[in-house]
Amino acid sequence: RGMTRDTIDTFRLGYSPDAWDTVVSFFRKNKVSRGVGVNSGLILPRKQGNGFYDRFRNRLMFPIFDVNMQVAGFGGRVMDDGMPKYMNSPETPVYSKSRILYGL
User: Fold this and answer.
1) Closest C-alpha to 89, from 40, 38, 32
2) 3-state secondary structure of 58
3) Which parts of the chain have pLDDT scores under 70?
4) Are 95 and 64 in contact (CB under 8 A)?
5) Domains of the chain, CATH where assigned
6) How far apart are CA 84 and CA 14, in angstroms?
7) Which of 27, 65, 66, 74 is 20 to 30 A from 98 (CA-CA)?
8) CB atoms within 10 A of CB 68
């Protein structure tokens, strides 16, 4: 959408593909425990059957930093007409919406 490489790098923007298991597969391939994925809010357990799925799909991703400039959560804007238009990480032990203000 017309963003320069400099803008992408400066704000550390990313993209979550329009797939249900990109992050789940990445965690499995790199031997990251599902607990890390669930506790970070990046993956969710399926409501029916076994397994997990990615929370963020087909979204431009914005990292949300804490005061120490560590990634504490994510914001994602959908890339099509899907809903919800904006989605943030859920409350976790490291991300609290009431304690972290995006961009400050």
Assistant:
1) 40
2) coil
3) 1, 102-104
4) yes
5) 5-88 (3.90.980.10)
6) 18
7) 27
8) 6
The CA–CA distances, whole Å, from 69 to 5, 14, 58, 60, 72 equal 21, 17, 25, 20, 9
Total Cβ atoms within 10 A of residue 90: 13
pLDDT tens, 65-92? 988 888 999 999 998 888 899 999 999 8
Q: How many residues would you count in the chain?
A: 104
Helix H segments across the chain? 5-11, 22-29, 34-40
Judge residue 74's burial from the number of C-beta atoms within 10 Å of its C-beta, 0-12 exposed, 13-18 middle, 19 or more buried: buried
Tokens 């087909």, residue located: 58
pTM recorded for the entire structure: 0.84
Q: Residue 63's closest CA among 38, 92, 23, 95?
A: 95
